Amino acid sequence: MASPEADSRLIQVVAPALDKIVKNSSWLKHSKLAAECKSVIEHLNSTNQSPVPNSPPASPAAQSDLEAPSHSGVLLDLPLSSSSLILSPLVNALSTGNLKVSEPALDAVQKLIAHGYLHGEADPSGGPEAKLLSKLIDSACKCRDLGDENAELLVIKTLLSAVMAVSLRIHGDCLLQVVRTCYDIYLNSKNAVSQTTAKASLVQMLVLIFRRMEADSSNVAMQPIVVAELMGPLEKEDEDGSMAVFVQGFITKIMQDFDGVFSPGGGATGSGIGVHDGAFDTKTATVEGTNPTDLLESTDKDMLDARFWEINMYKSRLEGKKGEMPEDEGERDDDLDVQIGNKLRRDAFLVFRALCKLSMKTPPKDAISDPKAMKGKIVALELLKILLENAGEVFRTSERFLDAIKQYLCLSLLKNSASNLMIIFQLSCSILLSLVSRFRAGLKAEIGVFFPMIILRVLENVAVTNFQQKMTVLQFLGKLCSDSQILVDIFLNYDCDVNASNIFERLVNGLLKTAQGVPHGVASALQPPQDATMKLEAMKCLVAILKSMGDWMNKQLRIPDSQPAKKLDAAGNTSDPGSHPFANGNADEHPEVSDGPAEGSTEASDVSMLEQRRAYKLELQEGISLFNRKPKKGIEYLINANKVGKSPEEIAAFLKNASGLNKTLIGDYLGEREDLSLKVMHAYVDSFDFQGMEFDDAIRVFLQGFRLPGEAQKIDRIMEKFAERYCKCNPKTFSSADTAYVLAYSVILLNTDAHNPMVKTKMSAEDFIRNNRGIDDGKDLPEKDLRSLFERISRNEIKMKEDDVSIQQTQSVNSGRVLGLDSILNIVIRKRGEDSMETSDDLIRHMQEQFKEKARKSESIYYPATDAVILRFMIEACWAPMLAAFSVPLDQSDDDTVISLCLEGFRSAIHVTAAMATKTHRDAFVTSLAKFTSLHSPADIKQKNIDAIKAMIAIADEDGNYLQEAWEHVLTCVSRFEHLHLLGEGAPPDATFFGIHQNESDKSKLGKSDTSPALKKKGSGKIWNAASAVRRGSYDSAGIGGNVAAVITSEQMNNLVSNLNMLEQVGEVNRIFVRSQKLNSEAIVDFVKALCKVAMEELGSASDPRVFSLTKIVEIAHYNMNRIRFVWSKIWQVLSDLFVTIGCSENLSIAIFAMDSLRQLSKKFLEREELANYNFQNEFMKPFVIVMRKSNSVEIRELIIRCFSQMVLSRVNCVKSGWRSMFMVFTTAAYDDHKNIVFLAFEIIEKIIRDYFPYITETETTTFTDCVNCLIAFTNNRFSREISLNCIGFLRFCAAKLADGDIGQVPSISPRKGKEVKLDNGEAAHNVDHLYLWFPLLAGLSELSFDPKPEIRKNALEVLFDTLRNYGQHFGLSLWEKVFESVLFRIFDNARHAIDPPGENSPGRAANSNLEELDQDSWLYETCTLALQLVVDLFINFYDTVNPLLKKVLMLLVSFIERPHQSLAGIGITAFVRLVSSAGNSFSEDQWLEVVSALKEASKETLPDFSFVHDDVGSISDSNLRSDRIYAAVSDAKCRAAVQLLLIQAVMEIYNAYRAQLSVENTVILFEASHAVALNAHGINSDARLCAKLQELSQMQDPPLLRLENESYQIGLVVLQNLVVDGPSRPEVESRLVDLCQEVLRSYIEVASANRIAESSLDGDRRWMIPLGSGKRRELAARAPVIVAALHAVSALEDSSLKKNLSCFLPLLSSLISCEHGTNEVQAALGDVLDSSVGPVLLRSC
């Protein structure tokens, strides 16, 4: 039993309605109904015992929240019987068909729903409660036929309330009935208000249904739609807006009744319809699969039955994917009643499918052109458009909904896209736009078909006949192109897909053709205003494409938008009657990249993969294009490019499956008789499986892929192979392949005869049978089979799969069509006068077949574009059409709007190409724009050229960071503009100051003929300058300066004057240079490079040089002064080259200007503080150095010196590393050929050293070296000895400063400053640091020792050795080692090389002049002797430190001794003796070993050689050459003999001085050295023939080396005798002494006995000895001291030793007795030996 509260509420709603029903009922027709109503009223009153409250009913929200969930009944808390009792009269009243009876019942039902009294689910197949609610809703729906507008509104109100109710759930068929009812009211109502209300209610219902589906809940926040935006052209009859206000209030009132549902703060904000939330997470994505014919009535079923197979073709592709889907996705939902989410999705699916089918309804043929008759289709399309534009995430990503779109909506688009009714075409375009914008991730293949079919088909049709259709497409593209992500995604997924059409490329090319207009010679029905409008819209689309690419690039690369582009108005300003702005609130938003399905959302575009895909496609396109021209070359190209395999099977598969191949050429290739073509044809035929096919069906399948060639032999080969293959697949059909072969020919002939309109007399069946008699091995084929074959061929023509190849061939082959879906895209293959496509079932069926094939080939994975690299490929595809589209109108048109669009396109194109670093494309756009400025031809400047100049300036401002080399074009324009601007102001040109002026006579000639009155008042100079500007050629040949070369007309002059005034519009262009400080680090370098290049072009003109850019270089250097040093180094590297080039220019004025500009920059740079060890100042001063070295101008070199003088005097405290460049400049000046420059430079360097020396090494000690080198250079100057001596004095000063520690932060090394820090090896820590400072100073002084001026040499050596002597005690061994090797030894190295004798082929030193000999002798006897003495003294002074260098010093001295120059060797020997004498006491035994070894080496190397006398004298035929050779050789031998004599004496001196310190081993070495000399001398002296020759040739004494021999033997005897006496007994020493004595005695005896030839008588009885001559006596007298010494040595031997060697000595002594002697000393000594030694020994032995 119901509660009293429920009864009271029902009474308030139901009782008044029942009373009205009773009053309005007819007692005859409705008596039963009236009685039922009274009974219900009594029942309600009887159950309501308590007084009824007068308060209004509770709010629906409160009732819904508190009561609905707690009751399972239908009406409040009443049981089913009571609910049925109360609702029964209402249902019966609604079914009466009487307006007065039904209207109160309908109102009561609406109130019950609105107040939430009804709850449950309405379902005719459900339980009793569901059936009751379903019957109630069904009764309310039938009231639409009452025909009253108030009743219609009440029905709409009731149904909308039912759908919006939360407690009452309308699902499934009941919901579809509600939607269909509102749809019928819209179609059939005669009242505009009812129609509009029905349409608005439909929209509100649909939005609510899909929002509930997205939220997976019935409780969603909604706002009422905006009716005014919803109204289409058919509803626009509401002129005053009252109808829209009424309908808006109607909808709003209903929604306000559901305040639990309506939320003012939620939902959509701008569109009028609740835009999807986008944040729903729905996991269940499947709904119940339903049959396509379940929904609509029988009138629609007829249409759908004819198309049902087509829908199955869509489903077949989806069914193939079932195995790839998860189980929960692939299965059908059998438990739809379990979850509300599935029911909500099912509702959305059913409604969407119903709308798709309604949009496909085919109206009567006479209603096709009537919009009112088509409004059912139109409203269905509008509702679909609204749903798609507001689709949420579930709708966009659910596989079931995507399949529904593919299965139903795509078919609808296919049927409606070719409609002649413009509003249907517009709506189709809008739907496609929504699919592309929001569903492209899941509909890749479908969009790839429909976009070209609907959009590109119209766009590429140049000879357009339907202006509105093309404008619709252009407006569609305008919206599409404003979305950057869509464009990039399209390019990535289609233009980079081998099996897809190049949509983006074709889109751009189509827009280009449209923007260019109808070509000449092509007929067109367009009016000129229409053509202009269409061109403008196409231009806007192209600009939008570039802007979108730029916006996407900015987002990906995070480039700030310096000047936000104006968005295209895609929503408000459209004339599309089917486009509702409210319906797509996201028209200007970027679509969500993640909207795609699962397989697309997780895969991004990889750069390398993208490049491979794009390159593969381009190469494949090229190969197919080549095949369509020359098949063999095309196949060869594809094989070489690895696009097709080499085997015949792979080539055949390619010919069979590839798109875009010319079918005729395929047939020609297959019919060739060449080996490869024949194998390919066999493989091609073998790839078919004809098993079970009828013969004509097999031929149909076979001939679908190619057209039979025209040559009979080719056809014969192909059909022969076909017959063989058919018989192999069907072995029982024919007895042999010959039968099939003949029948195939016959079938082809029959097909041609039956379907060729040129054949007048057609073949009959009997004729066909007769023609084929006896072909089966003499037998006839069954007549039945032949007749059936004839009928099939006659009824159905055998044709290729794509019969529109001829259409494709007539179009230009491009990359967009080669691999595009051309067979799909050009679907309208009909004449305009024929039936509409909507009635062409064959065409739609043909389209469906091709769609299925293309969908199978196309890649299903969707790649969202995320990498900006893809833009490079997009630029490559579109840059040329874009450039053509903007350039031609800009050149030919003067329309402001067109010009503005073209310039905007240029700016966007340059922005994209520059930021993506596509150099070629960027430069193409920049160069074109620069040409359009017309600054190279100022007499032709128009307003559009001024706008182009402004655009160029704006590009520089906005995209300066990416222009790179294109800056050159921008700055060239700026330079030309500034030049013209100055002309306009009357300023004189730069050539007045810097150029070579023309003759005045030439100027006067020019002025007489073409002076313009407008310019006369500005003076002749102005006229000349203006003429210079007018006479220019093309942009490339004009240059930056003007060249007067032709006669100027008065008209050109007048134009120039007015155009110069127009330039004022541009404004200040110098902001480019001011804003250069905002460029990034790479861009500023490019900017400077370009500016330098322009500056060089300006200065390159001999007649009209300009310095504009050069002055700007100084300015930008100032503006960018605060950049980091790393960047400035790159900038200055560029500027440095420029200043060097200009500084060396032949134009002195330009060079001076450049150097002065460089000086200004340098002063500014010097103001910046530089830390220690940096090199920036040196870098920016290097141009001065290079120009100083290269310039031939004295003025420039002097200017540089003065510039440096000024910088030093004014900024000396700021100079750091710049000292290096300064000293380089002064060093260069020191070697200058002009005396004034040398003196000026030295004056400055003198002041620097005297006054500013501490600044030189304040932060960098390396500049000290540069200072020293500079002073050395001045020392070598050739103009002033005073300067040289002063510089040597400065070098002494520098050495003192260095020693005192005043260089940088190096601590003092003066003895007064305390002890030094020692390293591990005891070496001073600072020595290594000072090495690079000391060395240049000392090395420079060393070099000065060879100065040709003696006083310079003397002073240099003095300073050098004074420095070493004064500060050497603080040097470490490493420093000393470096000093000796690289400083001191270098002096003597140079000397030794200079003194070396000439080579063997040289005539000798006799040719040298006396002056050279005097200079050489002067150096040897003065400088070299002094230097060598000083070196030895230095070594002796610092022996404790440098003693490890003893060996090197000895090697130096030995090298002097070994020189074949007596003076040089004498100097060396003297120095050697001086060294040993001074330091010998400090030598260790090892060091003495080094000394004696050096002496031995020297003695060995200086041995004289007279072998040339025997060997070479007779072999030379030339007497002069022989005499020169002999003279040189004798001189060398005599020099060596003299050196050896000095050396022996030095050995004797050293031995006598240090006899006690020499060890036996070292003494023996000395002996060996002297003995070797003695033996060599004795050998020469004993050669009588040699001595005679020498005496003959050079008057040498005989013997020549007697003194050398004697002294050598003498020292040997002394050394050995002392060893025997001083030390312990050493047998080897005594043995050496005995041998030496014997050798001396024997040599004496040989000399004394020589030439004593006995004179005998004839009989030989007596013999007499000839007495010695005087010469021999003198020789023996000279040898006497050595013999005496030897005899004394013998007598000094011990008795034992003498006794042992007596047998050797006695013969010699006896020979001495018999010899004739030159002096008595020998006889006396001999007597002493016999008396004192030999005699006693003999006596004792007897």
Sum up the structure in keywords:
two-stranded antiparallel sheet, mainly alpha, 66% helix, 1742 residues
Q: Helical residue percent?
A: 55-70%
Care to count the β-strands?
4
What order do the strands of the largest sheet run in, or round the barrel if closed?
1-2
**Main sheet?**
2 strands, parallel
Describe this protein's structure.
The chain has 1742 residues and is mainly alpha-helical. It has 77 helices and 4 strands. A two-stranded parallel ribbon has the order 1-2. A two-stranded antiparallel sheet has the order 3-4. β3 (1655-1656) and β4 (1663-1664) form a beta hairpin. α32 runs parallel beside α34, α43 (967-985) crosses α51 (1081-1100) and α52 (1108-1119) runs parallel beside α54 (1148-1166). It is elongated and about 200 Å long. 46% of the residues are buried.
A few lines on this structure:
The chain is mostly helical and 1742 residues long.
Task: Summarize the topology.
Elements: H1 4-24, H2 31-47, H3 60-66, H4 80-94, H5 99-114, E1 120-122, H6 128-142, H7 149-164, E2 168-170, H8 172-188, H9 192-215, H10 227-230, H11 242-256, H12 298-319, H13 327-330, H14 340-359, H15 375-389, H16 393-397, H17 399-416, H18 422-438, H19 444-459, H20 467-481, H21 484-495, H22 503-516, H23 528-557, H24 598-601, H25 607-627, H26 631-640, H27 648-657, H28 663-670, H29 675-686, H30 695-703, H31 712-729, H32 737-755, H33 765-771, H34 783-795, H35 805-810, H36 815-818, H37 822-825, H38 841-857, H39 870-892, H40 896-915, H41 919-932, H42 943-959, H43 967-985, H44 991-994, H45 1000-1010, H46 1013-1016, H47 1019-1030, H48 1035-1038, H49 1050-1062, H50 1071-1074, H51 1081-1100, H52 1108-1119, H53 1125-1143, H54 1148-1166, H55 1176-1190, H56 1194-1211, H57 1218-1230, H58 1235-1256, H59 1263-1275, H60 1281-1300, H61 1325-1344, H62 1350-1367, H63 1373-1395, H64 1410-1437, H65 1439-1442, H66 1446-1458, H67 1462-1479, H68 1485-1501, H69 1508-1511, H70 1519-1553, H71 1560-1581, H72 1584-1594, H73 1602-1622, H74 1627-1649, E3 1655-1656, E4 1663-1664, H75 1670-1691, H76 1695-1714, ...
Helix pairs in contact: 1-2, 1-5, 2-4, 4-5, 4-6, 5-7, 6-8, 7-8, 7-9, 7-11, 8-9, 8-14, 9-11, 9-14, 9-15, 12-17, 12-38, 14-15, 14-17, 15-18, 18-19, 18-20, 19-20, 19-22, 20-23, 21-23, 22-23, 22-39, 23-39, 23-40, 25-26, 27-29, 29-31, 31-32, 32-34, 33-34, 39-40, 39-41, 40-41, 40-42, ...
